[in-house]
Amino acid sequence: MLASKALVNVLFLTSEVHPFAKTGGLGDVSAALPAALNRAGHDVRVFLPLYGRIDLRKHRMRRVESLRDLRVSFGGRAWTLQVLAAPLPGSTLEVFFLHCPELYARQGIYTHDADEHLRFLVLSCGALTAAQRMRFAPDVVHCNDWPTALTPLLLETRFAWDKDIFGGTKTVLTIHNLNYQGMFPAHVLPDTGLADSAHLFHQDQLREGRINFLLHGVLYADALTTVSPTYAREIRTPEYGAGLDGLLRARGNALSGILNGIDHGEWNPQTDAHLPARYSARDLSGKRTCKQRLLASAQLPYVEQAPLFAIVSRLAGQKGLDLVPDALAPLLRRHPLQLVVLGSGERRLVRMFRELERHFPRQVRFRDTFDVGLSHRIEAGADFFLMPSRYEPCGLNQMYSLRYGTVPVVRKTGGLSDTVRQWNPRTGEGTGILFDHHDAAGLRWATETALQLFNDPVAFRRLQEAGMAEDFSWDAQVAEYEQVYPRGRAPHTKG
Ligand code: ADP
Fold it and tell me: Which of 271, 308, 330, 433 is least enclosed by beta carbons within 10 angstroms?
């Protein structure tokens, strides 16, 4: 007989949850992973800030009366928080929002404001205070990225007295991207309310005048995870370690790489409500309709023989998009290939894609915006998806692409090398095209290989089918998190 598995109480702290607040993959993961943990029977309570842009009506928010007027105070300041809750679409889970307009009613999710450190410290302290009020004793507090990375230290200091609630709590920090560390000047130390515990902060950094939130999560979390096995290895090297590789090597035993899944409810070409037509691996005719409609909406001609390449991305240095003009311009001149780009972010990259569009107005279209519906239509309508990333902790779009029969063309790094299998023209096996060296020649070679593949419809179709058959569901990944989480209580004894 199979032993029944232990169930755990998880307090999940994050700065993004899709569809409420998202700037990238963290938002997708912070929705899908808690939902999958919940399906597996664990008791998960997700907390994030109620940002000004979140639409209360649309998301059917309710006020949680039992968590009324939560008081959080540290560093000589005090805040009174209200808690709202909303159903997570596609799940029986409710998500909790900390309402504090003074801190969160701003334009963006992240800001450059002088109190940025306080905005996320209040998230950590507010969620821990809510757990106390709910009498919810977490077996694990699961923190994500720099915004909640000081939580393990808070549990060892300010909240250590509460043995009833936190006496058995372990902490897990998931690093979704090592390069965003939450770096603040050392003079904010008194603000954090942890001045008495200054000796617990990284002393060299304090002397150099800095406090790095993520670094303290790496130091104090019981377990560290990151979002793919390859990235877990890469971040222990100086090339990818963003200055923390030494520490990550030192904590190597605590660090594991767990590949992200994708939400099969949200990303499914057979049911996707964003698409003008739906399709499956058996019948791809709907995909052709998606391509025609996408091109029409982009005011580009539909040319039967022309492959459509796509990019959906934050426009940031990490994504390696600066290679695109040098790599693709010679091919665009010689070949009728087309390119659709959806992205927002750094100005220089916006200018770069505008320029490319201006040079190739009948082949290139660039949309400088963030549009979830369009990102689905692009995944469905394109033939190839480009991700020339410098580094890529996991990457989700290549997995969405595989699911949508869109062949990924990716740099061999991080999660991209864990999820895309190289096409072998001799055997016909593989799911995509990978290139090694991050330079224009590498991307040009990969794109030329894609053109060669597209000219062989049988081989192309085989790759599409192989990609669509891959299983990146979250339910498989939950078992890996269960390995990392401490052993919880016996089933059906929720306390
Ligand atoms: P990262 O987290 O580094 O941005 P990921 O590939 O892990 O990269 O996740 C990116 C997520 O953000 C995907 O769901 C992608 O579709 C989405 N995304 C990125 N840019 C845009 C955009 N301009 N419009 C809509 N969705 C976007």
Answer: 271
